[in-house]
Every structure is written in C-alpha cells, then in structure tokens.
C-alpha cells in the first residue's frame, strides 16, 4: 500500500520522511488489520530489518504455526508481479530476470498486485501447471495459491492456468508471449549446450494477446487459418495463413522480435512468407526447402461449429465438507442461494467457478478446489476448461451474470475508514497528515483558456447563442458546444452535444445529426462527445468556467409541446421563485444548477441561492467548505449583481425561508461521498473480451475500442475499422453503456467521447505511455510492425489539423470570451473562433435520411409523445433502413428483412457482412437457423431479460 503523506513542516523533509517510514513499518501489523487485511500474520523480526520502501525485493515466505498452515507474508503493497516455483516440494522465489520463462515440467504460483487510483490494491493469483508437471507439485501449487489468498485476507481472485490454455489476463502479464522451456525449474539451472540448434515451429493465435504453442516440425502442422514462426539457426520465418487476420500477423511479429532478441541476440534475418504465393522469392524457396520442397497445404475441412453452453446447461452445486457435490434443484439462480458458510461450484461447461463463502475455513476451501479439479478429470472435460476461484464479495462480472438477481448492496468503505484511522495514528505521533483522504481528480489535461462557441437547437435549426448568454443553458434544450484550444503548436477542436434532462427526443436526435454534419464539413478531425445534463465531466465545466443551468426551455418545438399539453411553463424568467445549488472545483470551474424549489432539494454538503418575490437568501450547508462559500459569493454576482442577499446558516433559517420552499421537510444531512475513481478498462467494440494490461500497441488500426473510465467512456476509431462516422461511434458507445457489462453502473447517461486514430487529445493519451510517432504511422498493423522490425523508417502520415471551415453563407465575427475574475479581482480575456456560423444552419432532409442510420436512430428508444417517468417528454422518431421494430413483452427487438448465414454475421467471421447493425447480429438469421443456434424462437429469445440475451449472444459469437 502506498500512503501519500503531506507534512506541514518541510524544513527537515528527508529526515522526517525516514522517521515516518520507521513508524509506519513498526505499526504495519496494526495498520493492515485496521485497513483491509485482518488475517495477515507479520514476522516483526524480519520486517524491521527492511526499513526502506524500495528495499523490499520480494515477499518473505516462511512457515508459521501448525494450525494456520499458511504463509507468513510480508509484502509492501506495491504494484507488479511476484512469482514462485515449486522446487523440491517447497516454493522458491523466481528472480525478476526469469519472469516469463516457464518450464513445462514445473508448477508456479503468480501474484499480480495492482495499485488502484483510489481504493485498496487488487490481487490476482494464478497457479500455472506445465504439461510435464507431476501431481505432487501441481497439488502443492494449488494449495499454496489458496494459502497466499488467505494471507492477503481472502482479497484475491484465483485462476488455474494450464500450459497452452492460459487466460488472456495471465498472458497479458508477459508480453509479447510465453514460450515454455522443456525441463524442470531449478534454483541452479544447468548450462545449455549451444553446439547444436534445435529447429522449432510455433503457432501464434490471438489478436491482442498472443498464445504461442510449439508444434511438430512438419508440413502437416501448417494450415491456412493460423500464423506460424519457424525458428532456425540462421533465419526466422513468419508464415501467414491466407485466412489469418492482420491483427494476428502483427502480434506474431512481436513474437518474432522477442525470439530474435532472446535467442539470437537480435542478430538474425527475418523473412515473411505469404500462404499460397510462390513467385521465385528466395526466402519462400528456402522456407519450403526446410520441409522437403514446396507442396500445397490441403484445404481445411469445414469444422462444425462447437456447441456452446447456454443457460439451460449451467449447474450449481453445493460442496460438502467431504467433497461431495450436491446439485441445486432450481433451474434459475439468485444471489440469496449462496450461503456465507458454504462453498459452491458453478459449472458453465467451458468455465467452472468455485465460490467460497466468507465464513468457510481454509480446509473447506482446499477441499472445494480439489473437488473441482477431480470433477474436471472424471468428467473428461477439455483442457480448455477454465477454473476460477472467488471469495464472497469478490465475484467477477461474468460470474454474476449467471444469476437472475444480484443485488447491489452498498458495503461500508472499509478502506476509507482505515485510511482515517491511519491518519489519526500519525497525528498522535505529532505529524499533521493532510492527505489521507480521497482526492478529487483536479487535472483536466488540456488548456482551458481557449475559445468557446455555443449553438442551441430550436425546431431542427442551430441558433448561435450570443456570447453574454453562452454560459447559460436550459434543461429543456439541446446545445452544441465547440471549444478550440492550442496544443503542440496547433489548434485542437472539441465538440460537445449537451442534452438537457427534459429535452425532447426529437431534439436530441436532431442535435446529434447536426453535430455530425459539422464534423463532416470540417477539414480537421475533432474529438466529439455526447453529454447528458447531470452527468457532465469535469472538463466540460472547466471550459465554461462559470456555468448556470436554468429550468425550462427556449426551444420553439418544446414550447409548442407545452401549449398542446397544457403543461405549466417553469422556464426561469428572473421573477419566479427559484432555488440554485452552487457547486464546483474552484473559481474557474463553478456551476449554479436550478433545482426544484422544495426543501428536500437541500443538502448539507452544498450552498444554495433562494430567490423569492421579495428577497434573496443564501443558505450555507453545515458540511460545506470555505471554498464553497467563495463559489457562492461569485455565482451570486454572476446571476444578478444587484441582489442583496440575506445569509443564513443551516439550522438558523427564518420561517420565511421555509415558507418559500413549501415548508420544512427532511433532506440529506450526511457528508456526500464522492464516486470512487476506477482504473480504466479497454474493450474491443464488440464488448466480448477485455484487453488486459493494455498499452498503445493494442489500439490496432483495423479495430475500434471502448476505453471505459467508469465516469466516462472513450470510443477510439482506427483508420481501417468498419466504424465510418462519429455518429455511428456515439451509437455504439451508447449500446455499450446499455449492455452494462459490469452489472453495476448507476447510469447509462455518462459522457461518451469519440476519438479518431492520429487525432488523440491528451485527455485520452494520458491513460497510455503515448508515442505520437506510432499514432501517425502509415499502413495496417502488420505493415507498421514489419517496418519497425526490419529497421525501416516509419512512413508517417501528417494529420490534417486545419481550423474549422465556415458552413453558413454569412460570416460571424469572433466574440471575446467573457472575463473570468478570480479572488484577487484579476480577469483574463478569451475570444471565440470562427466555425459553423450563422443562425439558420439546418441539415437537409436528404442529409437526415441518409446519415441517420437505423442504429443512429435507435440511440434513443422511440415512443409516442408522452411524459417519461422522469418527467421529460419524448417524441416519436421515425426509423429508416431495413429494420422493423417489434415489441416482445415490452422488449424492443429489431427484426431485419435481410437474411444472412450465421457464418457471415458472427463476430469472428472470415467473410463478414458489411453495413449491418453489429449490435443486433442475431436479427439477420433466418427463423430456421435462429432456432438451430439458440434452441428457441426469436419471440422466446426477446422475452428473455436483456442480460440473458447478451449472454447467449456472447456464447454464439454474436455479441
């Protein structure tokens, strides 16, 4: 665990830090118990010999007591890998220089610790079994993995890894690959006889994480679907099957480079061989001569589609103390079936999960694991069967998806409580610890002194908002915000579409269409983002500096709707009673949000402005800070500088205050907890597989990706991907949120950014170790990596980053941006940039019908004009294209009039259909083939819960 400590006295900083280290080390057993590891045992004699944070090279493992039967683990919670190998019936620590080198005759235990941005560390434990490992060593590795989890307070997820069938998470630790070594690991390995060199043939599979397997050096090992590496003493050959993907070939080149550097010291020639091409190339002739001469590779026989497991085959077993399996009689499962004092096995065919209740003993857990391994052997299951071990409270998303109900019970934030106790301990030692609490993400990563321009949508037209009013938004309207800022000597452009909470559905669709038209009409390639009121990112607020959001609407279409329905118009006009909540990060990023003028809208964590017909009140919550009070004074001046408010503190309000709010009622009085920062996750746009331990090289130009940062997501589009427009990317991003693969996201209306390859802003690249020369290389993934491998200078594409092009007939002059005044009274001037100017820009009907694809229209569910449950009106939206919308028990399903065979619509198709809605691949199957694949009719399928539909589609490679 890394404790970040700020001291008020910095005169003897180094001396003080050393003293703190010593105190921390002395108190570590207590601190760990206070935080989140109650069951850890610490050997103080060994621990106290390791004073420095960086002096710990590896955890210390030694026996401790007859009853515990587990490790004494001394580990400072730092990120990274620790590896042990079974050697002579005990665990031996593997040096860092040998990480990634696994012997096929041995068994290993691997611990990966990830220090999160906020919250406790995450632990993943893997025990790896080589194909030649004996049963005793394998059993010992399994036991020690469980004991290691116990020593960490049962806070780890455990995985069983079998040589050649490793999980992608495990392989991602050892990029670019793992190539097992024949033999058995020893602390004193013998010398390799280098007189002869064994020719080896490897097959490489995987688009983002490579699984490398040695195959017999024979022509019969080659096929048209895979990529092969032939390793000889004088040359490395890369053979690319004609049906292999570009991504697979590119990843295989990384393996070629790895072999070259590790086995040949980088001094070996590399040749690439194209399957089926033999035109006198000397490398091709040399390659086939090693196989006894050229001969065509036989065509692959059409393989039957492997029968995938579905929910009817999933079984839940209770594991008794004697290791017997007792199957549940229920056909459907819910969380309440799992008792905390028992262990269970969930059999999902290719995946088997062992769930261990918090109140089970170490002996019970060992019994459950050995029972599962015996079950796999006795059932004759495939070697591809994966075993995952989960402790109650650490369930993975995939595991939870097999249960009909999984209540999201909010657990106490023990980690945060522990941090507070640590702070108290240090204060008792005389140190003023100011920073052991959750920090806000104050970095916004771009220059916020740029130029701002705002349009409001009204009756399908874009109206330019005058500069004095561009920081005032209405919750019933939709707006397009253009922000231009300097970066790396050129202008970068960022486009937001802001959707008011109560805006019409028709206005939302038109706003996105208008933004897409703006993007298409520019020479540059701006980043676009979709934002819903109430879920704005910090960056959005920062570029406005001081933003006021009023209730009501200015849109002509919405005004007509109000008149037709006879609904009261609550649009703010400066005269009605109004209540504003004041919030913000600082004086350059603050907001006043108009809320319902009732006392339940109050919150002790904020300050408020109450405007009545006779007077103005400022209300100061008891939990608000000095910073909040400064924001209150500044926002009051911005809303109306002539107001003379009456300041009241919480608890001392006069009766007139409560009367203006309709009477005093209960409201939140506890400190509002900020949403925990989550580390980002990278997914292919088909949402099926996560890319673990990702880096920039994983962003292959042939694909599109989702970078899920929990509070916001980024859709990254490669130049050669099938996603051809920003609007399509926004739609797919919305589908990703709708799928809710985490099964715990509080809202699907979080901000969606769309980023194009080669135009990545710092708000995106900050999640990677970014090399801009790679981002602008020419060619597909394979061509780029081949150029680097052969030492050729990369062919760079210079991105076009010209200023925005004017679309309207009339030019609009730049307006100076409103002054931002800080606490010292200083101000700074800003000006806007010329862009899509004029007040009458409207996309033509031809544009709307051609550019709004069915999936684009399905970004928002269509319904008749009515008020939704949240009170916001919706409007009918027409859908174009070959998709009909059918309702099955309230679930909307798109049934296509186009029919394609399963082999062409599945995600991993070798001959994919283009131009289809990739989020509804199943709709393109005929009724007969749908029945065959899903074992049910389409109507029965669409009557299932959404999560269950997605799960079935995943198993059939249709999602």
UniProtKB/TrEMBL annotation:
A molecular function GO annotation: actin filament binding
Transmembrane segments: 20-41
CDD domains: gelsolin_S1_like (cd11290), gelsolin_S2_like (cd11289), gelsolin_S3_like (cd11292), gelsolin_S4_like (cd11293), gelsolin_S5_like (cd11288)
Transmembrane helix is among the record's keywords: yes
Record PANTHER family: VILLIN (PTHR11977), VILLIN-1 (PTHR11977:SF25)
Originating species: Tripterygium wilfordii (Thunder God vine)
Ranges of compositional bias, category Basic and acidic residues: 808-820
Official protein name in the record: Villin-1-like isoform X2
Any GO BP annotation: actin filament organization
Residues covered by the HP domain: 894-959
UniProt KW keywords: Actin capping, Membrane, Repeat, Transmembrane, Transmembrane helix
Gene3D superfamilies assigned to the protein according to its UniProt record, in alphabetical order: Severin, Villin headpiece domain
InterPro entries linked: ADF-H/Gelsolin-like_dom_sf (IPR029006), Gelsolin-like_dom (IPR007123), Villin/Gelsolin (IPR007122), Villin_headpiece (IPR003128), Villin_headpiece_dom_sf (IPR036886)
UniProt keyword Electron transport present: no
Span list, region Disordered: 808-839
Residue ranges, compositional bias (Low complexity): 827-839
